[in-house]
Amino acid sequence: MNLDAQWVVGFVDGEGCFHIGINNNASMKDELGVQVLPEFTVVQHEIDEQVLYALKAHFKCGVVRKNHGTRLAYRAPLRGQENLLKTVIPFFEKHQLKTRKRVDFQKFRKVLLMMEKGEHLTKDGLEKFVKSSNNELPKIS
């Protein structure tokens, strides 16, 4: 299935999610013990799984996995941060989202660029990041 860029934009406007998770993780090597997890996700009923695989092929990154019940998810997670910066981000910079999701994307992009510079590894950087992404900061001991 070959996907047209404007179709992808419309589909992601309606069904996509640009998410930034922040979790306490004592095994992290940084001083904060916090893990920042950016993820681009699209969820669909299993009957439309071909669309999710087409998105995976389109962006040349990510995975399609069972989400919940009869739903599947296309996910381009943190482990693919480089892929997010080289494929997903440039795509949506060139082909802008039309809804409020564009604001979510801009925040997501900003956080990824901060992460690329390592800003999420310091307390000041993490606080700046949290402010940018509208997340809550987990308790840092």
UniProtKB/TrEMBL annotation:
Named from the GO MF annotations, one term is:
endonuclease activity
Domain Homing endonuclease LAGLIDADG as annotated: residue spans: 9-111
InterPro entries recorded for this chain? Homing_endonucl, LAGLIDADG_dom, LAGLIDADG_Endonuclease
Quote the cellular component terms of the Gene Ontology held in the record: mitochondrion
Origin superkingdom = Eukaryota
Q: Which UniProt keywords apply?
A: Chloroplast, Plastid
Q: What is this protein called?
A: Homing endonuclease LAGLIDADG domain-containing protein
Species, as recorded: Pterosperma cristatum
